[in-house]
Amino acid sequence: EAIVRLGGSYRPPSRVSVFVGTTDGNLERSLNYERSSLRERHGTEIDRALRRGNRYAARVLIWASAGDRRHIVMMEWCRSSPGAVGRNDAYLVCPTCGNLYSSRYRDFYCPCCQTDGRRFIRVE
């Protein structure tokens, strides 16, 4: 209901696929899917929201798209050299709003939603 009120639409998934494999293989498959999904969409949802004058929905979609891209980049960075000596291969996710941080530069509070930085989730 909230999605529709913000100018979007929702269809429940028609088919759910379950993959069985190694963690790294599943992660690679997920990253490939996300990359192709972002390439195919080209911001069409954002353009549609802007054309309809729904700047709030466009802002949320832009924020979500940027977060997706940052997740992909940071996960690939963490995978590039797992367990490297002296390297801090991790990033942090705010559990409230999903904002991302390098684990080297953790804020004391999330600047987006003011969640205490000690609650951030570490992704390695």
TrEMBL record:
This is Rubrerythrin.
